[in-house]
Amino acid sequence: MIHNVKGRLASRTVLLIIASWVFGWFFDAPYLCLFLTLISLLTYHVYHLLELVKWLASGSKTLPPDSFGTWGQIYDHLQVKQLAHSKDIGRYKRILKRVQGSTEALADAVVIINKDNQLLWWNPAAQALLNLKRKVDSGQLITNLIREPRFHLFLNDQQPGSALLIQTVHNPPKHIQITKTIYGNDERLLLLRDISKMKQLEKTRRDFISNASHELRTPLTVLKGYLETFDDYKEDLPITFHKPLVQMQNQTNRMENLVRDLLALSKLEEQNTELRQSQIDVSDIMVEIIQDARVLSGEKNQEITFKANSELCIRGDQSLITSAISNLVFNAIRYSNEKTTIFITWNENGTLEVKDQGIGIQSRHIDRLTERFYRIDESRSSDSGGTGLGLAIVKHIMLNHQGKLKIQSIYEEGSTFSLEFPKDRLVSKLDE
Predict the structure, then answer these.
(1) Per DSSP, which regions of 41-106 are E strands?
(2) Backbone angles phi, psi at 278, to 5 degrees
(3) pLDDT for 38-48, tens place per residue?
(4) Distance CA 351, CA 347 (A)
(5) Which residue segments constitute the domains of the chain, with CATH numbers given?
(6) Other beta carbons within 10 Å of 342
(7) What SS3 class is residue 417?
(8) Cα(16)–Cα(20) distance, rounded to whole angstroms?
(9) With left for phi above 0 and alpha for psi between -120 and 50, is residue 298 left, alpha or beta?
(10) What is the CA radius of gyration of the chain?
(11) pTM higher than 0.70, yes or no?
C-alpha cells in the first residue's frame, strides 16, 4: 500500500490546487484561495512530519499517531513494519538465548573479543579457567590476562584454524590449547581447552616406556651374551638345538632394536631435547647410507640412485639427520620389489626425497603412518623385522629441526617420502 503514496499525493495535491483556483474564480479571488490552500497543505504536512519525528524519537514504543489520507497510509505501513520488526527482534533474542545457553553449558572455555582484543563475553568455563570477573574484566584487554608473547602473535595471526598451546603460571601449571575463529568486524571467538590431564597422561606414558626400556636393556644384554656363547659352541650342541638357537638370536636382536628405538623416541619426545648443531653435507652422509642400503638389498638387485641438485648443507644434529634419512631409504628397500629403482634426490629448496617403485600405500593409511607401532600389514611388518617406530622417529626428528615429513603414495605404483627442512637451517657450501 505504501508503493502508491507518491502518485496519490501528487494527484491529490494537483486536484486540490485546481479546485481552489476554480473556487477562487467564483469569489473573484483565485490567488487568495490558492495561497490559503497551499498554506493549509504546508501546515498539514509539517504537523504530521513533526508528529512522525516525535514518534520516532520516542523509540517507536507506542502506536503511531492517528491520521487519514496519505499520512494515514504512511502510519499504517510503519505500524506493520514495526510489528514485523518486533517479531524479528523477539525471534533473534530467543535464538541468541538458546546459543548462549548451549555455549554456557560447554565444558570448554569460550571467549569473545573485539578487534582491539577487549573482552566482550565469556562462558562459565572460561570464567573458572581464567579466573574472570564480570564487573571487573568486561572490556579489559585479554593480553593483560594471558601474558605470553606467543599468544600476542597468535591473536594477530590471520591464518584460519591456527592453534596455540601455552602453559600458565598457576600452581600446578595448566596446559591450555587455544583455537581461534575470526568473524564479523575482525572479532574473534577463542576456544580454550584445559589439556593438563592429557599432558600428564602423555608424560606418564613416556616415563613408563622410557623406564621399561631401560630396565629391559640389562636382561637383554645377559640373554644376548649367553646366546653368543652358545653359538660359539654350537657344534657341541645336539642338532635339534641349532634352529631354536638361531630363532632366539633373531628375536633377541629384534627386541634389542625395539628397545633402542623406544629409547630414541622417548628422548626425541622430550620438550627440551638439545641438538648437537653442526653443518651436515648431505652428499657425504648419503655415501655411507647407500652402501648400507645395498647390503640390505642383497639378492633383490635393486638400483639406488642419488642426485644432488643443490650445494646446500643442513645445520642440525648429524646423527639424527642420518637416522631419519636411513629410515626412509631402508624402508624403501624393504617394501620394494626385486630389480626396482629407488630414487633419492636432494633439491635446491631444502627437500630430500626418497621415491620407490614399491607396492604403495592406500590413502586411508597415510595419515596414521607416523603413529608408533601402526602397521599396514601385520605379517609383512613382522617379516621385514621392523619395529613399527621408524616413521614416528623420523617425524620427531623433523619436528626437532622445525621441518616436516610428507608422504605421497599411489597404491601398487610406489611412494615418495620427503624431508622438508626450514630455510633458516640451510647453509650454502659457496658461503664457506
Answers:
(1) none
(2) -155, 165
(3) 888 888 888 88
(4) 5
(5) 2-101 (no CATH), 106-194 (3.30.450.20), 198-269 (1.10.287.130), 278-431 (3.30.565.10)
(6) 23
(7) strand
(8) 6
(9) left
(10) 40
(11) no
